[in-house]
């Protein structure tokens, strides 16, 4: 990997296109290097993972709304753009690809239950899959092209997350997703670097939003935001292919992204990118979730599962202190100073971002369920509320250092001190979740298939599950017609009631 310095330039300073970050991202995306076998395997895993969580959310309100919006933009039969399918519906009901990416992106993101990557910033790189797959399906591209596009999307997302912190400036992480999805689509279509460059800049410019979507009263927009970035990426690529330009240089400009929205003209970011000819392997740095909760809670759920039996009578708990990283403390802990995170009537999206709630429920239940653990009656149970309100978090510099560390020292967990009323303390710690690549039982293909089977049970018929999984097994050799069916269909009565009427 090469480290690239990225800073602000005055308009009077010359900055060749080839020296701009957007061009360098485009050059990586459009570099036609072969995709390694282990990367192809992991891409298949994440396609399965996305489908699993989409199946589990298929009848939820936000998904029904997004699906109804998308169905207002059905693709015309025949022609070069045959449209793309929506999760749960027959491929014969295809829609324009940007709207398929919208509907499918919301389904994937709704339960906060797919893959993650955490470094200088954080991300869900699997959010690249809906827009890139939708374009592949609409253009009739084969499995080899799809693999090429997804490897590029993951690479750009991970490299940006390693090099540029957004959250310290309250910029939402989809500002890295728009450019990565645009670059991935450029790789998928085999576009020239110049076109991918313009598309990446357009996508950055149109997907930069604030982090209020993940603060205070967190709403369903948390699921919509990545889908919006994917939709914007497709539109940006379409415009760039028609010869339209973008604000440039988008990252380095005097009135651009770094100068006014990030650390300003005095700051130099360092973004790692593969050298020309190097394979795109960044997906292997990412990890999925075993539990439907914010990633920083994954290890702490595993820790709660093993600490619960040692506590026994939860009424005897005096206090619980979670010592953890800066990010965990300030985003999902008591350091956020969000009273909603302690509110038994808070939304699912808010409870998902409350490690106090999550740890209390996992401690009592000895596990986590993507529906039952968030049910209002579960959140409002008096003994749970009492335990929940005894939990505080604290930043520990050692855990913050491990959060930002490289290699085997990197960790996202914490140390928990449970004080009992009789004066005893129960203390334990865990660095990474059991399902993490460095954890006690790392996820492999069989685990992804099991997750899909579990979440799709009673939603997707067994034969349809088998058909979908069989396609993924042959991913790089799929024909264009087979890629178009890389989806799942469910019986109509399992899609939930019609969404409320809107404009479309």
Automatic annotation (TrEMBL):
Keyword Lyase among record annotations: yes
Family matches, as Gene3D superfamilies: 2-methylcitrate dehydratase PrpD
Domain MmgE/PrpD C-terminal as annotated: residue spans: 291-475
Domain MmgE/PrpD N-terminal: 20-265
Transmembrane regions listed in the UniProt entry: none
Pfam family, one: MmgE_PrpD_N
Gene Ontology terms, MF aspect: lyase activity
Keywords of the record: Lyase
Assembly: Monomer.
Family as reported in the entry's similarity comment: Belongs to the PrpD family.
Listed name of the protein: 2-methylcitrate dehydratase
Species: Sphingobium wenxiniae (strain DSM 21828 / CGMCC 1.7748 / JZ-1)
């Amino acid at each position: 990997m090469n480290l690239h310095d990225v800073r602000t330039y005055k308009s009077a300073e010359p900055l060749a296109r080839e020296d701009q970050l957007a061009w360098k991202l485009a050059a990586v995306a459009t570099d036609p290097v072969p995709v390694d076998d282990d990367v192809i395997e992991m891409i298949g895993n994440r396609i399965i993972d996305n489908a699993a969580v989409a199946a589990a959310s298929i009848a939820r309100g936000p998904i029904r709304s997004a699906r109804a919006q998308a169905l207002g933009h059905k693709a015309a039969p025949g022609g070069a753009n045959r449209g793309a399918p929506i999760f749960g519906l027959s491929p014969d009901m295809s829609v324009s690809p940007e709207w398929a990416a919208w509907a499918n992106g919301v389904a994937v993101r709704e339960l906060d239950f797919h893959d993650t990557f955490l470094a200088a910033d954080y991300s869900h790189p699997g959010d690249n899959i809906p827009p890139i797959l939708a374009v592949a399906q609409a253009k009739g591209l084969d499995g080899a092209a799809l693999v090429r596009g997804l490897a590029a999307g993951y690479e750009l997302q991970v490299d940006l997350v390693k090099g540029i912190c957004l959250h310290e400036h309250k910029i939402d992480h989809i500002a890295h997703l728009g450019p990565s999805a645009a670059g991935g689509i450029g790789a998928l279509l085999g576009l020239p670097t110049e076109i991918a460059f313009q598309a990446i800049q357009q996508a950055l410019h149109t997907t930069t939003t604030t982090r209020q979507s993940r603060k205070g009263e967190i709403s369903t927009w948390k699921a919509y935001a990545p889908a919006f970035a994917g939709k914007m990426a497709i539109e940006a690529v379409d415009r760039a292919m028609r010869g339209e330009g973008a604000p440039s240089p988008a990252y380095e400009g005097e009135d651009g992204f770094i100068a006014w929205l990030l650390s300003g003209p005095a700051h130099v970011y360092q973004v790692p990118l593969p050298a020309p000819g190097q394979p795109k392997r960044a997906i292997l740095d990412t990890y999925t979730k075993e539990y439907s909760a914010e990633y920083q809670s994954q290890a702490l759920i595993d820790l709660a599962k093993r600490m619960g039996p040692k506590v026994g009578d939860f009424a005897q708990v005096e206090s619980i202190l979670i010592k953890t990283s800066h990010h965990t403390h300030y985003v999902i802990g008591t350091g956020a100073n969000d009273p909603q995170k302690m509110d038994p009537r808070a939304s699912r999206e808010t409870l998902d971002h409350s490690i106090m709630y999550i740890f209390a429920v996992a401690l009592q239940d000895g596990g986590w369920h993507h529906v039952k653990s968030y049910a209002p009656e579960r959140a409002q149970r008096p003994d749970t509320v009492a335990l929940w309100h005894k939990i505080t978090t604290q930043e520990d510099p050692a855990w913050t250092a491990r959060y930002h560390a490289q290699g085997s020292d990197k960790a996202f967990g914490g140390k928990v001190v449970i004080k009992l009323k009789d004066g005893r303390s129960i203390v334990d710690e865990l660095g990474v979740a059991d399902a993490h690549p460095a954890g006690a039982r790392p996820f492999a293909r069989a685990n992804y298939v099991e997750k899909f089977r579990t979440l799709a049970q009673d939603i997707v018929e067994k034969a349809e599950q088998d058909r979908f999984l069989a396609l993924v097994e042959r991913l790089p050799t799929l024909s264009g017609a087979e890629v178009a069916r890389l989806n799942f269909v469910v019986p109509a009565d399992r899609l939930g009631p019609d969404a409320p009427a809107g404009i479309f």
